[in-house]
Each structure stands twice: as structure tokens, then as C-alpha cells.
Design a protein that fits this description.
There is one protein chain. The protein has a five-stranded parallel sheet. It is 29% helix and 26% strand. Helix 1 (20-31) runs parallel beside helix 8 (310-325) and helix 6 packs across helix 17. The chain is built from 17 helices and 34 strands. The longest helix is centred in the middle third of the chain and has 16 residues, at 310-325. It has four domains: 4-121 and 256-325, FAD/NAD(P)-binding domain, CATH 3.50.50; 136-253, FAD/NAD(P)-binding domain; 340-460, FAD/NAD(P)-binding domain (3-Layer(bba) Sandwich); 465-563, Rhodanese-like domain (Oxidized Rhodanese, domain 1, 3-Layer(aba) Sandwich), CATH 3.40.250.10. It is globular. The termini are far apart. It is α/β, with parallel strands linked by helices and 566 residues long.
Length: 566
């Protein structure tokens, strides 16, 4: 900033409130009491709990006012911020350091010394016939939630009974549950092969089962082809010919960065998202950007992608304010790890870091670990299994990503693993983590410690894994050995598997030699614990052996019960 500018209060203009914009504004005020800080928000509300919108629709949050974190009046009183709602920026003029905004009273122009762009993202509207029907809505703003809740409150008159949600991502699932909670019949449509596409299939499968338990009908792997409008309802026509009648259609197929105005002004963008450096700076002088509209560098893969999450947006806004006002000590904007969590019915699903698809795209060789530990000591009442998938880098075991689903304890483990990824820990490092233990809260070997033990075994060759996804090929090439109990085997097993309980295996190795011949042995149990014991025995007895990662619990999620023999 030039010397002339320092003789007067700095003028910081922020486009967009909510997460990134308001974090930047609040931090800037705490650092510089004299700065003139103006926040321009296109909508009516500048600081609202957008992550709480589905819970207002579902009735868990009853009072609309609780969605409003701050108002222009409260922000002026507390932080002396000039917050202007219903100001839509229509042009930026970087040469003159000004911008133009449209208001109800007409156009206004503002000057800036530093400009922070936090415009967020808008809902994607797929090009399908009938998408502009008045029964189609989104869930991005307080107004969206209020309007939808108002429609649901009319259901006593019988005009709102059926809903179709297009898109089974995080917001789509939260919205589907909210609508079901309000008593509607709900159909959930997802183009990807399974709900929650960022999750691995084996983690998404229990979520789909829970949706079914809640009475939500899932249509995965199929596109919505058209929306037909009728006098008293709409019909969503799927690509496979199925027809879903709806009184409400909620669109949640994704978002796109809201950047057209800024790209027209010369802000460098890629795939519609703003490009920034490690301090949030765009290619234009003293113009910064943060939040859903920015292309972030993934902390694990190094690939650029938008990260539409509130936590990274808040941290980026704060870091940008630091760089504007204290550049000599400002830290870079942290690259997002991408930690997210969802409640669906009685389950919690969460993820952090990279999934297998992202690792393949980045060319990162990895090993995948499947575990099914309980959230606390098994002998304490209420223990329940979770499914845990962890990706580690081949060779050194660097933690790359983790996902989990279960009725309890998922949030705790994902947060620890997210911290471990940020700290650059390896699988072996997890063994040594000193985590809180009481039978009520955990186990002496916490699930996170177990991840480290399994990972270390894989890396040093103590444990070799095979995966349920490879079963069709391996059933032709290897002997599948099931070491579960007789009752478990009878309840459902992979076709052609040889059954020998692990407690009998030492005395029946001869049977394995005859059945295997020159083929390798691929052993399995319920969750992977007993098959690891069997694998160590087989390996030390001269067999080419590997243990099924996650056991039959994972195999059922990947392959489905229909492949099992009984």
C-alpha cells in the first residue's frame, strides 16, 4: 500500500458475508480500529447459519431467528462495521480501485485500498426440461429455508405430501431427512453409483441402509431427465423411465463459484473458480479472495479444487485480514484437508483428507485399511461397531485420508485423524498417540491406535491384504478360505469358499494344501482380526497368503448380500 494511503484510514471492502467475508471483517477490525470496513452482501442476511438450514426445515431448529448469527445492526454496534445488505456488486474497476453495486435505490460506487472477494457459490441448475417449475427450490439461503418451511406448514391441507430431492450429497441427505422428519414421502435421486459420492462405496452402503430404514427411497446411478408440471403436482421423470410424483422438488446437485462479475474484471479464474496464491491474493493488486468461490490447493494431493466448507472459509478470511494489516507476520492460508461430517438417522458419517479416487487422480500410490472397531470397550454396555477406512501412502505410511460411519464415536476418531493428517503423521505414529481411555469412552487400544498397528503391519510385510472389489478375479485364481465360525459361515459366505474355523486351522493345514494346490490362499473372517491370525499361520507355514481387508463386514458393503450363498 502506498505511503499516501497510510495517511488516511484504510478502506477495506468485502464482497460477501457469511463465513469468509465476515471472518475477514471481524479480524480486520480487531487489528485496525481506524480502518473503514465495508461489507456488501447481495442477499438480505449477511451472517447466517447456512449449515443449519436443513435443521430449520426439519423442525429441530424451531425459531427462524436462531439462524441469524449477526445482523448489520449488531455488527455495527460490536465492531463498527459498515454492513450493507441487498448490495449486489455488478462491476469491479481495478485501475481506479473502485467497484459498482446495485441497490434498491440505484447504483453506488465505492473505493477500496484492499478488496476481499467472498461471493460464495450458487446452486447448479442442470439443463433438464421443466427445471424452472415453481415447485423446484434450493436450500442455500435463509429465504429458501423459510419458504420451504412455510410450504411444509401447509401440509395439513394436504397439498404437500411428497418430495423428490435431486442430489445425494451432504446437503441433499440432510434435506431428505428433514423432509422425512416432517412426514413427507421422500425420493432421493443421485446420478453417481451411490449416495454421498465423496465416500468410498463401503462407507456409503450403511448410509443407504439407514436411509431405507428412515423410509427414504434411494434411486442411485440414474439421472433426472425431465420435470413435468401438472395442476396439483409435478412428476420427475428418471432416465430409466421411472416416474416420481412430487409436491416439492429440492435441487441439490452441487454448486458453482459465483464469479462471473469478477472474472469479467480481470480476476484470473480456472473452471469458474478464482485463482489465489498462498496468502489469498488474486492476480490483481490488493484484491484477495476466499471461500467457496476460490480454487484451493488440496493439502493431501496438491490438486486444485473448490472446497465448499465453512471451516476452511472462516480460516481463510481471517488469514487474509492478517496479510492485509500485518503482512510481515501473516501466515499463509492453510490448505484445506476437507474434513466433513453428517448425521443421517442414527448414524454419523465423516471423512477427512483424500479418497481413493482423488489419490488415483493425483498418481499417489497408497494402501487402504479397513477396520471395524467399537467406539468404546466391548464389555461396557452400548458398544457398537463403526466402519473405518484409512488410506496411507505406500512406502512410508503417511496418512492421506480417512472415512468412517457408525452410530457413535465417529466424530472423535475423524477429528484425531484430521489432526494427524495436518501434522504429517504416519501410520506408525498413530500407535504411539496417548489418547483418553475409560471403558465408557474408548478402549485401551483406541480405534486410531489400531489404524496405526494395522498400517505398520502392512508396511513392514507382517500383513498382506486383499480387497472385496477383487473377489470376482481372485475366486478364479486363488483359494478363498473362510475362518469364521460354523454359524457365521452358514449365515452367508462367498461361493466356493473353503470353511475352516481359525481355531482348527493349525490341525487342518493339510486340507488347505490339497485344496489350494499351487494357488495362493486368500483368507477372510468377520472383520479382519481372525483372518490376520490365520494369515500369519499360513505365511509361516509356506503359503502365499493375504487377509481380506475389513472382512465380511466390508465385503457385504461392497458386494451386497445377494452374492452370498447360504
Amino acid at each position: 500500500m502506498s505511503a499516501a494511503m497510510t495517511d488516511r484510514p484504510r478502506q477495506i471492502v468485502i464482497v460477501g458475508g457469511v463465513a469468509a467475508g465476515m471472518s475477514a471483517a471481524a479480524r480486520a477490525r480487531r487489528l485496525d480500529e481506524s480502518a473503514r470496513i465495508t461489507v456488501l452482501e447481495r442477499g438480505e442476511h449477511v451472517s447466517f447459519a447456512n449449515c443449519g438450514l436443513p435443521y430449520y426445515v426439519g423442525g429441530e431448529i424451531e425459531d427462524q431467528a436462531r439462524l441469524l448469527v449477526q445482523t448489520p445492526e449488531s455488527l455495527r454496534a460490536a465492531l463498527d462495521l459498515d454492513v450493507r445488505a441487498q448490495h449486489e456488486v455488478t462491476a469491479v474497476h481495478p485501475d481506479s480501485r473502485t467497484l459498482t453495486a446495485r441497490t434498491r435505490e440505484g447504483e453506488v460506487q465505492l473505493s477500496y485500498d484492499a478488496l476481499i472477494l467472498a461471493p460464495g457459490a450458487t446452486a447448479v441448475r442442470p439443463p433438464i426440461d421443466g427445471i424452472d417449475s415453481p415447485r423446484v427450490s434450493t436450500l442455500r439461503t435463509v429465504e429458501d429455508a423459510v419458504n420451504l418451511r412455510s410450504r411444509l406448514d401447509q401440509r395439513a391441507q394436504g397439498d404437500v405430501q411428497r418430495a423428490v430431492v435431486l442430489g445425494a450429497g451432504f446437503i441433499g441427505l440432510e434435506a431428505a431427512e428433514a423432509l422425512r422428519r416432517q412426514g413427507l414421502e421422500v425420493d432421493l435421486v443421485e446420478l453417481a453409483p451411490h449416495v454421498l459420492p465423496p465416500l468410498e462405496a463401503e462407507i456409503a452402503a450403511p448410509v443407504a441402509t439407514e436411509l431405507h430404514r428412515l423410509g427414504i427411497r434411494v434411486h442411485a446411478g440414474v439421472a433426472a431427465q425431465a420435470i413435468e408440471s401438472h395442476a396439483d403436482h409435478d412428476t420427475v421423470v428418471l432416465a430409466d423411465g421411472r416416474r416420481l410424483d412430487a409436491d416439492v422438488i429440492l435441487l441439490s446437485v452441487g454448486v458453482r463459484p459465483d464469479t462471473a462479475v469478477f472474472e469479467a474484471a480481470g480476476v484470473a479464474c480456472e473452471r469458474g473458480a478464482i485463482l489465489v496464491d498462498e496468502y489469498g491474493r488474486t492476480n490483481l493488486p490488493d484484491v484477495y479472495a476466499a471461500g467457496d468461490a476460490v480454487l484451493s490447493v488440496d493439502a493431501v494431493t496438491g490438486l486444485r479444487r473448490p472446497v465448499a466448507l465453512a471451516g476452511p472459509a472462516n480460516r481463510a478470511g481471517r488469514a487474509i485480514a492478517d496479510h492485509i494489516l500485518r503482512p510481515e507476520t501473516a501466515r499463509p492460508v492453510p490448505a484445506p484437508v476437507g474434513t466433513a461430517i453428517l448425521r443421517i438417522g442414527e448414524l454419523t458419517a465423516a471423512l477427512t483428507g483424500a479418497n481413493s479416487a482423488a489419490l488415483r487422480d493425483a498418481g499417489i500410490a497408497s494402501e487402504t485399511l479397513h477396520l471395524h472397531p467399537t467406539q468404546h470397550a466391548g464389555y461396557f454396555p452400548g458398544s457398537a461397531q463403526m466402519a473405518l477406512v484409512v488410506h496411507i501412502r505406500r512406502g512410508d505410511g503417511l496418512l492421506l485420508g480417512a472415512q468412517a460411519v457408525g452410530p457413535d464415536g465417529v466424530d472423535k476418531r475423524i477429528d484425531v485423524l484430521a489432526t494427524a493428517i495436518r501434522a504429517g503423521l504416519t501410520a506408525a505414529d498413530l500407535i504411539d498417540l496417548d489418547l483418553a481411555y475409560s471403558p465408557v469412552y474408548g478402549s485401551a487400544k483406541d480405534p486410531v491406535n489400531l489404524v496405526g498397528m494395522v498400517g505398520a503391519n502392512v508396511l513392514d510385510g507382517t500383513l498382506a491384504l486383499w480387497y472385496a472389489q477383487d473377489w470376482e478375479r481372485l475366486r478364479q485364481e486363488a483359494l478363498i478360505l473362510d475362518v469364521r465360525s460354523a454359524a457365521e459361515f452358514a449365515a452367508g459366505h462367498l461361493p466356493g469358499a473353503l470353511h475352516i474355523p481359525h481355531t482348527e486351522l493349525r490341525d487342518r493345514l493339510g486340507e488347505v494344501r490339497v485344496a489350494a494346490g499351487s494357488r495362493p490362499v486368500r483368507v477372510l473372517c468377520g472383520s479382519g482380526v481372525r483372518s490376520h491370525i490365520a494369515h500369519r499361520l499360513l505365511t509361516q507355514s509356506g503359503f502365499d497368503s493375504a487377509s481380506l481387508s475389513g472382512g465380511m463386514l466390508t465385503a457385504r458393503a461392497v458386494l451386497g448380500d445377494e452374492v452370498l450363498e447360504r
